Amino acid sequence: MSGQGQVSFRNIVKMHGEFAALKGVNFDIKPGEFFALLGPSGSGKSTTLRILAGLDTPTAGRVLIDDKDVTSTDARDRDIAMVFQSYALYPHMTVAENIAFPLEMAKLPKSEIAPAVKDAARKVKIDHLLDRKPGQLSGGQQQRCALARAIVRKARLFLLDEPLSNLDAKLRLETRAELKKLQRSLGVTAVYVTHDQEEAMTLADRMAVFMSGEIQQVGTPAEVFARPNSIDIAGFIGNPPMNLVPARYVDGDVIVAGHRLKTTTTTAGERDVVVGLRPGALRMSEGGLGARVDLIEDLGDTAVLDLDCAGTMIRMRVADGNIPGEGDTISITARPQDVHLFDPATRMRL
Amino acid sequence: MTAKRLRGIALLAISMVFLLAWAFPIIWSVMNSLKTDSDVLAYPPKLVFTPTWEAYRDVLFGSGSILPNLLSSVIISVGTTIVTMLMAVPAAYALARLRFRGKKFAGFYVLATQMLPPVGIIIPYFLVLRNIGWIDTYQGIILIYLSFSLPFAIWLLVSYFEDIPFEMEEAAYLDGASRLKTLWRIIIPQVRGGIAVTVVFVFLNAWNEFLFAVVLSGNTVRPVTVAMFNFVSVEQTLWAKLAAVSVLAMLPVVVLGVVAQKHIVKGLTVGAVKGGGRR
Fold it and tell me: Smallest CA–CA separation between A237 and chain B, in Å?
């Protein structure tokens, strides 16, 4: 039953009346990949997942799975398993019955269902809870039950809609790591929706960043982090996100708050730009941009400084042992390759 | 004596007054059904008397036995309940879930039928049934009962269906279930409580119905609510027998009420708290 799990979206448009939820979305997912759909709420990432699952139909465009057009195929005929944000466990069935349900629907003989259920439950470590009802499980256990129900069928595609958002912080981190291991060991293609950039960065092999109904960038987490395509992505990825400061470009340099910074980006003539500076890419050095330390957020091994550079707010990450005092005046700079330039009109990278 | 204690006693007293007001006619009927006719008419009323089953023996096995009428009532009520549920469950599901043209109007229509005074439509109903020759038939009475039990059942069930999250159904589709399988395996087991409540209400409404029955029934099909009046005539009222029939007619109602009590209480508060009844 299990196939390749290769996905292509071709110019998918989804209209809700006059409102365009998706404005022509294109991407490809390779077999076996962990692919994240990342974006703020309302950006269209969940709609994209629902269209892939067959729970919504696109207004225009085509969805291909393993090179077959499935745009008008019913959800139940797509061989896709999904974990919902609410888990959507069947409350009147036991854990074992919940996990067995997809196999029953696939008309597997009873003799094969029982071992398969056991096996799936063991993989997510809930094999001691098989006789419980979902109402008797903790949030984390419910989440595992939903995972088991999704992996038991060995579908070709594994969809996850914000599966960790209902867990508490500690459990979320644990489950995140286990999820990645589970996906690797199963070798299945996974599509993961999240608004948490950290989740996407840590889990995904590649990710698509959604902004108001469009994909603005597709790439590995490292690529997206290193070269964000737009001001919106730059302000969304990273914790804290990139500093975005209005500046003026003058032959090879940018002038930020009265100070000249070298950049490797070149653009024609003299113009207004938005400069992007990662908090972690800033360093303290003599003769740089003068800044007063307004506030220090100490995170233990690092600290985030809120700096006032002649009225412009800039955040900077510094290592432990190198922390100035509040109210101190320091001088900061960045390597030319760390100075990103964006067009303030199109909001795209220069 | 604390204020809390006083409050409790006051509340208890008030509830006793209400309970008594409700229970009095029932107690009175049960007592009268166990008296002889002369004891019933005694004044002042006899509270202490020798009980007798004579009235029950007469109404069950005497010349004017009401057994056929009880059977009529059972056939009408059970028939109405089965046909109503067979149609109301899918209809309520559709109203709760599907998007279709005229859904709003359909919902309003269902509710509007509940606002009509039944007396207003009894003559048209009579004429229709007479023209198709269904007066004094089971199918005739059941058809007419459907006209009010069905909207009521749909209206009651919709709120139960609406309580089930969409994602539950979508999960079932992705697990490979068809719409019908999903309805049967996932949705209906979760609205069992609602279905039980609806069955009880529909059955009781049909069982207790009098107005339509008296107009649309005849000698062949004569439910017990109508037959009761055999014991009321111009010359006299056979109180003990009338009371015995009343008690017999009440029995299934009481039994159903006790059995389904838990569900009914939940049913009356459904929708008060969103999803409160479920998890």
Answer: 30
